[in-house]
């Protein structure tokens, strides 16, 4: 039985659907801060900062795996730094402790390319780069990676983690990230609206299509434990592109689509992140292989966005 925290979020809302497909709706317990009336299946309102509430759900529902997706992301996280740290760390500590105390078999912990800061190689950023993040969100993910490694080594907890790049999908909207422009742009294009991009045209960032990100997550969770050499978090990437490249590819399909660039505070965050990622370790340890490049992703986005969304998040 799997519990998902942050199940109404950008990743959580897609991951919960995939996990229901794979393991059966009744074996997935979706949770988030607010009830989601559109969700089909077991759903509980849960504030993961509440240890007792989390423990009660895990015990009463016979949970054996936890996917911990609740967090405050990079851009929003800069508005109230100490609150971001408290929320991101408190929730993960609760997940770690409840998992240790109740013999949870596996835990998934999402990290991010936000763990990388300045003074690392920004092209094909290596798995083992030193981590000097420029955002509180990134700092919380570096700390989280090390706590995951600590619980793995000290308590034998099976925690697996991916450093997600920017994630692009049609099923959900992102919430407060620095890569959100790459989702918003598609909605503007299909609504024939001009897009104001909060990053400059040449801002190269590592990205991944949602379908690849979800498949990678499940493949990592199903990989034989003995093959997983990285105990902090795996680098992973689908593709890298700039807003200008994305916009010109979109204009192949929507010739009248217009974009203008209005960099804001998120530009500094993006400038501290890698431009591309070396994910050799994920390819070697658990056969990671992306299936979506830029053109295929754009095609799939427009095909699916032109059909009504299953629910409005
Ligand atoms: C964010 N989408 O922008 C998230 C992610 C790498 C980006 O961490 O904060």
TrEMBL record:
One of its GO terms (biological process) is L-threonine catabolic process. GO terms for molecular function: L-threonine 3-dehydrogenase activity. InterPro entries: Epimerase_deHydtase, NAD(P)-bd_dom_sf, NAD(P)_epim/dehydratase. Residues 2-228 form the NAD-dependent epimerase/dehydratase domain. PANTHER family: L-THREONINE 3-DEHYDROGENASE, L-THREONINE 3-DEHYDROGENASE, MITOCHONDRIAL. Belongs to the NAD(P)-dependent epimerase/dehydratase family. This is Nucleoside-diphosphate-sugar epimerase.
């Amino acid at each position: 039985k799997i519990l998902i925290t942050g199940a109404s979020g950008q990743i959580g809302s897609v991951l919960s659907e995939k996990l229901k497909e794979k393991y059966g709706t009744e074996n997935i317990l979706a949770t988030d801060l607010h009830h989601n009336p559109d969700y089909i299946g077991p759903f509980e309102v849960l504030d993961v900062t509440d240890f007792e509430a989390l423990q009660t759900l895990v015990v009463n529902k016979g949970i054996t795996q936890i996917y911990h997706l609740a967090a405050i992301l990079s851009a929003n996280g800069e508005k109230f730094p100490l609150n971001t740290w408290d929320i991101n760390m408190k929730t993960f500590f609760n997940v770690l402790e409840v998992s240790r105390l109740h013999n949870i078999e596996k835990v998934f912990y999402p990290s991010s390319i936000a763990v990388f800061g300045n003074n690392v190689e920004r092209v094909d950023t290596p798995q083992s780069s030193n981590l000097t993040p420029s955002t509180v969100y990134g700092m919380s993910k570096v700390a989280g990676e090390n706590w995951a490694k600590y619980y793995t080594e000290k308590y034998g907890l099976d925690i697996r983690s991916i450093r997600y790049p920017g994630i692009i999908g049609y099923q959900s909207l992102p919430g407060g990230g620095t890569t959100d422009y790459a989702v918003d742009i598609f909605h503007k294009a299909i609504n024939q609206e001009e897009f104001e991009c909060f990053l400059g045209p040449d801002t190269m960032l590592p990205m991944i299509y949602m379908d690849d990100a979800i498949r990678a997550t499940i493949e990592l969770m199903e990989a034989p434990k003995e093959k997983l050499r990285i105990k902090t978090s795996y680098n992973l990437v689908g593709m890298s592109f700039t807003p200008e490249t994305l916009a010109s590819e979109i204009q192949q399909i929507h010739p009248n689509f217009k974009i203008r660039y209005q960099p804001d505070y998120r530009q500094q965050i993006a400038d501290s992140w890698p431009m591309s990622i070396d994910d050799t370790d994920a390819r070697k340890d658990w056969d990671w292989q992306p299936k979506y490049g830029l053109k295929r992703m754009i095609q799939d986005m427009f095909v699916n966005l032109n059909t009504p969304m299953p629910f409005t998040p």
